[in-house]
Records
---
Amino acid sequence: MEIQEKKAHIQINLKEALFIYPAPLLEFLDNDFNKWWRNYDRSLKTLSYGLYLKHINLTGNGDEMTLYGQAGFTRRISLDYDFPFANKSNTLGFGFATFYSANKEIAYKTKDNYLQFERDLEKISSQGRRWVSGPYIDQNCS
């Protein structure tokens, strides 16, 4: 009986992607740089700044987590999580989202192309703060 030795060479090429995407945030009061420059005298008090962070494939199952944090004129934080494929046929997904926002002032009207603000703490505490949270189910994940 004759035994022959056989060899095989296997090469595997992998392409890795960046899974964490950070981005800085800068938001103007009127969402317009020119108005901020001219009308608000380039005041840093009217800017909002922060960080947006997205993590794709957090657990290795195609899920995504997004974190958004902002300070300055508007304080805001949110956390979203999406798990798109909860069953073997990839037709059911779930996730949750939570969000908090608070303003130091509330714009209530425009006068001569300037926003007019309310600083009444009673009104701001009832109208300018929002907290939203809850789970959801997505049945169209395909």
---
Amino acid sequence: MDRSGERYRPKEVRNLPIRNVALHNGEPALYRRTILVFDRVVDDRDILTDANGLQLRILTPGVTRLEFAWSWPNEGTETTASR
């Protein structure tokens, strides 16, 4: 089943406090960790059943769209890491 393009909203968003950090070049920067929590089961269906990846798009007014992607092998397939 291909559920490409389905959208889900997080059930919880937690913003941790802003803190000072140093970048790899020593420059100071401000950093905030945001935790997004999603339901795994929606409408009595595990939304990751048969999935081999997911894409997270973050859309915030006035900010460039951010995209992250994860993938994993399907069950029963051999991966280089497991050889």
